Write a sequence for this structure.
């Protein structure tokens, strides 16, 4: 796994990871310079300077506690086709999911005339913090759509037992999709959080928080090493809200 250096309270660097979640609820009431998803200091104090109690309900660290821990399964064998055709128009808006996400995540977008096809745009890539120019006619793969919880990872942690309709919905769920730098997405492949994290350290809390939210909403599990990796990241941002929990239709 790539570096997962913790930030925030000093105890997070030294205590066994199993204790981090136990202490999270206690620290929420006292504050300890916890960091938000971008890695900047948070301060719950108002105009009077009084630090308010931090409520952990709805945080990624609290939601992680509700996700079952099981070994990943390698059987039956994963096949991409089991999640349906790539980039289906599941919301019946006349546009495939890839172009929906490009339109959502890119700026300075131009579209094909009388079409929803994105021709050009600019992406502030969350995984590398680089600005990437997208041009469909020249290098369409420069920007790719990442499944934050990879399809193969979902398959190994519960999706193998879903209905075809549920797998199709998961593969096209905007809450689990991000437009990102193409080569970085290829580097990630189907890894979970114990094997790969975004090079942009300032995005790691939000990345893990979205994986947790998506897994919780779809009833997926985590394996032990994945959970430990998530805990290490969240120990530096205990108040990070869980992401990826919005029901989409």
């Amino acid at each position: 796994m790539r570096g997962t250096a913790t930030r925030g309270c000093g105890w997070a660097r030294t205590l066994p990871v199993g204790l981090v979640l136990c202490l999270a609820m206690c620290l929420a009431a006292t504050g300890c310079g916890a960091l938000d998803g971008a890695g900047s200091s948070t301060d719950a104090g108002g105009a009077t300077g009084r630090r308010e109690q931090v409520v952990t309900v709805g945080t990624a660290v609290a939601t992680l506690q509700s996700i079952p821990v099981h070994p990943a399964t390698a059987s039956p064998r994963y096949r991409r086709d089991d999640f349906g055709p790539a980039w289906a128009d599941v919301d019946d808006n006349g546009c495939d999911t890839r172009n929906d996400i490009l339109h959502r995540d890119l700026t300075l977008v131009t579209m094909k005339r009388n079409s929803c096809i994105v021709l050009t745009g600019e992406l502030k890539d969350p995984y590398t913090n680089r600005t990437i120019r997208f041009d469909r006619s020249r290098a369409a793969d420069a920007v790719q759509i990442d499944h934050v919880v990879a399809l193969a990872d979902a398959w190994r942690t519960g999706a193998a037992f879903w209905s075809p309709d549920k797998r199709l919905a998961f593969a096209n769920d905007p809450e689990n999709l991000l437009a990102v730098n193409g080569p970085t997405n290829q580097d990630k492949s189907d890894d979970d959080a114990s094997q790969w994290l975004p090079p942009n350290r300032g995005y790691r809390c939000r990345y893990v928080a979205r994986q947790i939210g998506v897994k919780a909403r779809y009833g997926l599990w985590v394996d032990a090493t994945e959970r430990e990796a998530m805990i290490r990241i969240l120990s530096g941002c205990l108040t990070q809200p869980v992401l990826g929990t919005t029901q989409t239709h």
